[in-house]
């Protein structure tokens, strides 16, 4: 709690005590206007206390939202980097396997008939295409995760802004 908020809380407590004292003094002395003034002062102190509490809650929610956004962004970046690394590894593996299988197919073709060579080439190409589709799917998942993180960040920022607006409205109402 900042010094300003602590000062506001102390001021509210003192106003509440002063209002209670006025109310009691008015009741003892039979002065209804003093009783009423004391009750009004207590009500104002309660409103101020509620506004300070709402403002503190809004600030805590904003800080929590900022931290959640930061964590979500970090997680999204980590997931994106992991997916990118995995996709690159898969692409390298695909290329290595493609080269290996083509070399094998060429050796088989030299030793065997043309039909077996064609079958090996088709199998190598199909495997490479499958791995490329898998790598593309991993890259797509990384993009989707980043978009979800951005949407979550926007939602949390909207919630924080709404909480700040509510606190401002309560402060404005209290100051009236």
From TrEMBL:
Location of region: Disordered: 24-176
Protein name: CsbD-like domain-containing protein
Biased composition (Basic and acidic residues): 58-73, 86-101, 109-134, 152-161
Residue ranges with Low complexity bias: 162-176
Source taxon at top rank: Bacteria
